[in-house]
Amino acid sequence: MSNSAIPVSSSAHRGPTLGFRGLDVLWLQVTGTVCNIACTHCFITCGPKNDSHPIMETQSVLDALEQARGLGVKEIYFTGGEPFLHPEILKLVEATLVHAPLSILTNALLLDDETCAGLARLERNSRYSLDLRVSVDGTTAEENDPIRGRHTFRRIMEGAHRLYRHGLNPVFTVTTVHAQYEGNEGRVQFLESLRELGFDRPRVKFIPPFHIGREEERGGAYPPGFQLSPGDLFEGEEQYLQCGSCRTVTAKGVYPCPILIEEDGARMASEIHDTLVPIELNHPACTTCHAEGFSCRT
Amino acid sequence: MPDVSDYERIGVFGGVYSNHHALRTVLADAASQGVEKLFCLGDIGGFGPHPDRSAELLRQHEISTIQGNYDDSVGNALDDCQCGYTDPRDNAFAQISYDYTLSNTDPQHRAWMRDLPMHLRLRLGGQDVLLAHGSPRQVNEFLWESTTPDSFIERLLGEHQTDLLLLTHTGLHWNRLLPQAPGRGLVNVGAIGRPANDGDTAVWYSVLTWTGDVGAPVSVEARRVEYDHETLASEMRAERLPDEFVETILTGWWTTCLEILPAKERARGQL
């Protein structure tokens, strides 16, 4: 294994090098790009017809978990696509929670009572936290549905309420495609709206839009030259940029982060062990994380 | 590795948060427990009233103290406390607390905080012990019980060449001695500055003892300490600190800093 920095994209631009401080976070793209909806801001263009990254075999997920455990991983994340499309999702949750805390990023549309009860049981039996990150794009159908699809707001709230009734307090994850949620005032208002919707201990995470994938058409692409250059990172930034301590595994290989899996040249290797090296941040999306101080972590 | 002091029984606390009443009670309790030495893991100011009183007590009693993120901020007059909150409401309260603390800390104490070490090493019987604030690699890293796997603890111990890590920063006490590795593990000593979000007004610190037993060479006792919280609350009101802070002191439930809690720890609280 070489220790030279691996560029995160095939761009000819030379970006700054970010050191790797160890595998704190493992992202598992358990359902790849396969999703039951097709959000207009999705940065990896997930949808029912996109199997660019297919659903991962159960054994592949278990193998990645075991490798990560051996490397002293701190947190595991399941994402997709929609993770609850995985036919053995509860088995994967159970296997993970034996050894580490887990966050699952979901649109909540498939969370029926039986699934919520199963998740709650697994959470109760584990020493570690289980977080459900429920994606929603507003506090009304008028805000959310144009992004996530017709009638999805009502169904997302139904799924989130089911989680809540089973004792799992979801973290609502909001991509700030609506300008009012970019500032503190709007974010405080969002929390208040969730209380009014019946979530009396609301938890929220806001995510900036990444102008790649389907978001390129909805909100516009990154302008030319919107990339970091050597010297742009501040001292110690590897502590805060998640890609300084995370890797993402899909059915197709290992990537620096969950944002870039559909980008040319982002695939680093087949095995996690071969990716524990510095990376060169030469993709425009890297600028979003740097400028916003953003991390995908819960 | 430089020579380090060797002990058989130590007391360790963190997160004083200007709670000079709790600090006095902890000093007395530790003396009654026969600890050889007391250590403070930082965050001397913040949240409570009259920050100089806690700094004076620590210096007067020559408590070995390491630097927390708050002490770094106050010592160097930074813009904020570097607490690592993500919620705008938490950041607003943190700023009120920080501005009050910075403006009420004597320059002599600030100079002392500025020069505090970030880590200390010692030996407890046969075990190497490393003291840090949040984690040995990042001063404001939160290591919670429900999000810190055994494999990660092993990794930190290996990377920092120690048997035991003693930490604070989260405000919640917990410890895990690894069953497969006697005498190795992590102790979050909690905070003495505010209660542990459990409906109890008491605060917590830890006493560690070298037992010498092959299977369990170190024992960890989390000690619950009652103190005059009502007088502290009166002083906080007189200093016009936020009612939300006073409520926490009087009820034992956190009213701020909730967003940082992982799912399990959040579920145990009231809000």
Protein architecture, described:
The complex is a heterodimer of chains A (298) and B (271). With 298 residues, chain A is α/β, with parallel strands linked by helices. Chain A has a single domain (6-292), classed as TIM Barrel (Alpha-Beta Barrel), CATH 3.20.20. Chain A is 28% helix and 15% strand. Chain A has eight helices and eleven strands. Chain A has helices at 58-70, 89-97, 113-124, 141-148, 152-165, 184-196, 215-219, 284-292, and strands at 6-7, 17-18, 25-29, 75-79, 102-106, 130-135, 171-175, 203-207, 246-250, 253-255, 279-280. Chain A starts with 5 loop residues before the first strand and ends in a 6-residue tail after the last helix. Chain B is α/β, with parallel strands linked by helices and 271 residues long. Chain B has one domain (6-268): Metallo-dependent phosphatases (Purple Acid Phosphatase, chain A, domain 2, 4-Layer Sandwich). Chain B has nine helices and eleven strands. Chain B has helices at residues 20-32, 51-60, 69-75, 88-103, 107-114, 150-159, 229-238, 243-251, 263-268, and strands at 6-7, 9-13, 37-40, 64-65, 120-124, 127-131, 164-167, 174-177, 185-188, 203-210, 218-225. The A-B interface holds A 21-22, 24, 69-75, 99-101, 123, 127-131, 167-169, 184, 187-188, 191, 201, 203, 205, 239, 298 and B 86, 88-89, 92, 137-138, 144-152, 154-156, 158-159, 258-259, 262-267, 271.
**Biggest sheet overview of chain B:** 6 strands, mixed
Number of helices of chain A: 8
Strand content of chain A: 15-25%
Q: Regarding CATH, which class of chain A?
A: Alpha Beta
CATH topology of chain A: TIM Barrel
CA-atom Rg of chain B in angstroms: 17 Å
Assembly type of the shown chains? heterodimer
Strand content of chain B: 15-25%
Number of strands of chain A: 11
Order of helices and strands of chain B: EEHEHEHHHEEHEEEEEHHH
Provide the structure class of chain A: alpha/beta
How widely separated are the two ends of chain B? 46 Å
Broad structural category of chain B: alpha/beta
Which shape of chain A, going by the Cα principal axes?
A: globular
Q: How many separate domains of chain B?
A: 1
The separation of the N and C termini of chain A measures 31 Å
